[in-house]
Design a protein that fits this description.
Elements lengths: L1 H37 L6 H29 L6 H38 L3 H7 L2 H16 L1 H26 L2
Helix pairs in contact: 1-2, 1-6, 2-3, 2-5, 3-4, 3-5, 3-6
């Protein structure tokens, strides 16, 4: 019974770290979209389209990295400085993972569409390799139009959040 309770608490902490990381990634991405609407950035229509879709990928990347990485890397004896380092490293991981997720989405979209519409997979497979080249272009577009500016927001935010988390943990004794 005690082991089950400890696993349950650990699972909830992992999910909590994932939700916090996902919320930070989403907030930074939405802030970028707000800045992009106010400041006249010269983005191509394709870049504007994929930058608009990037927040959903940022949320997914943040949740996955937060839930998997944070509790595995940080321990009870970790210092706030180590928390800041891991927080900024996770932010860099999010910034790198979002373009990859966008590319994988484009790559798998014909297959998903054929499954949802009830068409055979042979129809979707006939479309390849064109989705592969499109996925490469989308990955490059998101990596150049979204990642640098969101990374400039997210890396310091991740460092402060990691530092604050480990400082709170040390002060509270948990």
């Amino acid at each position: 019974m005690v082991t089950w309770q400890q696993r349950s608490v650990t699972w909830w902490r992992d999910m909590g770290a994932g939700v916090v990381t996902a919320a930070a990634a989403l907030a930074a991405s939405l802030l970028y979209l707000l800045v992009a609407m106010v400041v006249p950035l010269r983005l191509s229509p394709d870049a504007q389209y994929w930058v608009g879709y990037a927040p959903q990928f940022a949320f997914v990347a943040g949740f996955v990295l937060g839930a998997i990485v944070w509790r595995r890397v940080m321990s009870r004896v970790s210092t706030p400085e180590q928390g800041a380092f891991v927080g900024s490293a996770m932010a860099l991981g999010i910034v790198a993972l979002v373009p990859i997720l966008a590319g994988v989405y484009v790559l798998l979209f014909p297959l998903l569409l054929s499954i949802v519409t009830g068409q055979g997979l042979h129809y979707a497979i006939q479309l390849y390799p064109e989705p592969l080249w499109t996925a490469v272009d989308v990955t490059r577009t998101v990596a150049t139009a979204w990642s640098p500016l969101v990374g400039a927001l997210l890396v310091p935010l991740g460092a402060v959040a990691g530092w604050a988390s480990q400082r709170r943990r040390r002060l509270s004794g948990h």
